[in-house]
Write a structure and sequence with these properties.
Layout lengths: L3 E4 L2 E4 L10 H5 L2 E9 L2 E2 L2 H15 L7 H14 L5 E8 L17 E8 L2 H10 L1 E7 L14 H12 L4 E5 L5 E4 L3 E5 L5 E3 L10 H13 L3 E3 L4 H5 L3 E6 L3 E8 L2 E2 L7 H13 L6
Parallel strand pairs: 7-8, 7-14, 11-12
Antiparallel strand pairs: 1-2, 1-6, 3-4, 3-5, 5-6, 8-9, 10-11, 10-13, 13-14, 14-15
Bound molecules: pyridoxal-5'-phosphate (PLP).
Length: 287
């Protein structure tokens, strides 16, 4: 549990942390966010997460709320005040507060900035990875700029809730042609019958996951072949292995898709190997 939340320049006790009723993030979903893993009190892949945050802000023409150095201090201070060891930091930047209007507020309106610490149990995550997770596929009904990490997460929330109702753990979005775009909050990967690793190429319909990028660095270093192309949900069900990647799940094996067993029903060997190797390829911040 976060004890102190950073809100617009102050570290506020969790119960008192609030934003204005006319915040653009609250009224329009006019905000972007990042989730950065914290391991042993250190940020994982901070540079890539902060680069992506800067890109999301640029794409939506939201002003950068603070310098790189100030961000560095806020992230570390949030970890320190919450005595966070293992978990994640959630950062959100909205276009700020203004009387409700579809047009953007005047230039100079300060963005709203929030940073929340959240702890997670590494043992619990390992237990989940040892079993693998079940996926439900749902139609991808999101907008055409999923490359921007915005807080407009209602389709993802509804997809995950539908998955839970069906007894699955998470959801994959599938486009009108039957191709998997990505997970509700993760990138989607398969290993085909020939042992080839496949994940969708980067375009506007998926988020360029930081975990995905770092894993690709690792694959290149190890000489593991990767094919970046769309794959269908039918291919995924017939695959030898499947997994998802995200900052909170790292590499998480998938063992069922829509109730169909993937491979032999156990987490795949390559998936588990990549999970174990991930942090050796990631940037682990000095404290
Ligand atoms: N795709 C979507 C839609 C996501 O929401 C996320 C993470 O939240 C990802 C992919 C994975 O991104 P990352 O590896 O940077 O956590």
């Amino acid at each position: 549990m976060s004890r102190f939340v950073y809100v617009n320049g102050q570290y506020v006790p969790y119960a008192d942390a609030g934003i204005h009723a006319e915040d653009r993030g609250f009224q329009f979903g006019d905000a972007v966010y990042e989730v950065c893993e914290v391991k042993g009190g250190r940020l994982v892949d901070e540079t890539r997460h902060m680069e992506r945050l800067a890109r999301s802000l640029r794409e939506l023409k939201i002003a950068e709320p603070m310098s790189e150095g100030a961000w560095t201090r806020v992230l570390r201070e949030t970890i320190r005040r919450n005595r966070l060891r293992d978990g994640s930091l959630y950062l959100q930047v909205s276009r700020g507060v203004h009387r409700r209007d579809f047009f953007f507020p005047p230039a100079g309106t300060p963005p709203t900035v929030v940073c929340i610490a959240r702890n997670a149990s590494p043992a619990k995550a390992e237990a989940t990875a040892a079993k693998g997770i079940g996926i439900k596929s749902v139609p991808d009904n999101r907008w055409a700029r999923c490359d921007i990490k915005t807080v407009m997460l209602l389709p993802a929330s509804m997809a995950k809730e539908a998955a839970r109702t069906d007894g699955a753990n998470d959801a994959w979005f599938v486009d009108a042609k039957g191709f998997v775009t990505e997970g509700a909050s993760a990138n989607a990967w398969i290993v085909d019958k020939e042992g080839r690793l496949i994940t969708r190429q980067i375009d506007n319909v998926i988020l360029r996951g930081v975990t995905r990028t770092t894993l690709i660095d690792h694959l290149r270093r190890e000489g593991i072949e990767l094919v970046e192309r769309p794959f269908t949900i039918a291919e995924a069900k017939a695959a030898r292995e499947a997994f998802i990647t995200s900052a909170t799940s790292i590499v998480m094996p998938v063992v069922t898709i829509d109730g169909v067993t993937v491979g032999n029903g156990a987490p795949g060997l390559l998936s588990l190997k990549l999970r174990a190797a991930f942090h050796s390829a990631a940037e682990i911040a000095a404290v």
